[in-house]
Amino acid sequence: MSRTFLYCRVSKAEQFTENQILEVKGAGFHVQANRVVEERISGDVPASQRPGFQKLLERIEPGDVLIVTKMDRLGRNAMDVRHTVEQLTAHGVRVHCLALGGADLTSPAGKMTMAVVTAVAEFERDLLIERTQQGLERARAGGVKLGRPAAVETTRAVQQHKAQDKSQSEVAQALGLSIATVKRHWNKTI
Asked: How far apart are CA 21 and CA 70, in angstroms?
């Protein structure tokens, strides 16, 4: 017999998952309290790296149903959400999203919805990259120097110690820098 699980996620400590639980109850789903997984973690963290979601994956079995109130509870990155739904589908778990009318994202209609959402997310990402590149080109054309500012003071300090015949290790220790930073400035000229 299939069991129903609920995954509730909020990003900040001052946020609460109670509204998600009430929304699921209001939609007519009965989820036992021990099958509600609540987590406070950013949606930017892939589902596969969230401790609460990992515990859910350990408990959920083929034939079970996972409910989320919105797709962004699974993640903010559409590609990650798609991967998570595919992983659950491969495990025999059905995923229902209340914001999509309770659609089963593992059904043919749900898969189509996921494909559209993923395509839109990829399109938005590509537009963002394109706008960023155009902005960088405009800045370069306007004479703006891009990139990390030169660490002139660090180079000067490394060169002064080098002139005193100190080793790179000694310079790193004296200046409180990593050896990699010292090496980067070792042969630079001011």
From this structure: 12
Per DSSP, the three-state class of 48 is: helix
Please indicate, yes or no, whether the overall pTM of this predicted structure exceeds 0.70. Answer: no
Q: Are residues 96 and 159 in the same domain?
A: no
Annotated active-site positions, please? 11
Instruction: Using a pLDDT cut of 90, give the percent of the chain over it.
Output: 57
Token reading at 88: 């659950």
Q: Are 112 and 174 part of one and the same domain?
A: no
Q: Hey, which bits of 13-132 come out as E strands?
A: 36-40, 65-68, 94-97, 103-104
Pairwise CA distance, residues 144 & 139, whole Å: 5
In whole numbers, what is the pLDDT of the chain averaged over residues? 89
Is residue 127 included in any domain, yes or no? no
161 and 78: one domain?
no
Give the number of domains in the chain: 2
